[in-house]
Amino acid sequence: MALTTCPDCGKEISTAAAACPNCGRPMDQLLPEARQGTPVAPVALGGSPPIFNKPPEKKKGMGTGTKVVLGGLGAMIFLYWLGGKSEHEKSPDATGEPVAAEALAAEAPPTETLDVSATELVAAYDANEVSADNSYKGKTLRVTGLVESIDKGILNDVFVMIGAGRAFHNVHASMASSEADRVARLSKGDRITVVCKGRGKVIGSPMLRDCVIR
User: Fold this and answer.
1) pLDDT tens-digit profile of 30-45?
2) CA-CA-CA-CA torsion for 141, 146, 148, 151, nearest 10 degrees?
3) Residues 118 and 209 grouped into a single domain
4) d(CA 81, CA 78)
5) What's the CATH code of the domain at 139?
6) Contact 4, 38 (CB under 8 A)
7) Global pTM value
C-alpha cells in the first residue's frame, strides 16, 4: 500500500483513503502526484503549497527505422563513389598497376584515313551501296574534287557540293563550323581536298560530315 503525506497536517496516510484520518482533508483534493504516492514535503498551516517535481522524461533515442534509412544512404554513397572510381581505371598493365581510361585513349593508334576522289566515291555508291557503306560509311575519308557549289542549309549549316564529273552526281560535304571562314573564300571550280567522316548515301549523293579543308 502506498503512503503519502497530508499537506494539511503532515501525517502519513494511505493513498487509498478517501480523506485524511487525522485532519479530515478529502483525498480527492490532493494533486495527482500525491495520489500516486510521490513523497511531498509537509506544509505548515498557512504556508505555501508544496512544489511537486515531475518525473524526468526519457530521452528519445534514434528509432530502428531511422537507423536503417541512414545505413542505406551511407551504402548508396559508398557504391556511387566506388563506381565512379572504377570508370577511371581499367585492367592492370604489365606492371600490375591500374591504367586510367584517359591514358588508354591517348595510347590508341590514330584512325586510318582513306584517300578517295569524289568521282571514285560516287561510282562506288552507284555500283553497290551496301558494299560502299562497308568501305566508307563511318570511316575517315580524304576526298578530292572540284567545287560544284557552296551552300547553306535550313539550320544555317555550311556545305560544299564536290563534283564528280557528271550532272547530279556530287558528293555532299557538310563542313565543320570552324571552316566557315575558309569556305567563304572558295569559288566554284576550285580544286578542294577535305577530310571528313563518311555518312552513306542520301538521294543519290554520297554524304560526308564534319569536313575540314586540307
Assistant:
1) 555 544 544 444 444 4
2) 50
3) yes
4) 5
5) 2.40.50.140
6) yes
7) 0.47
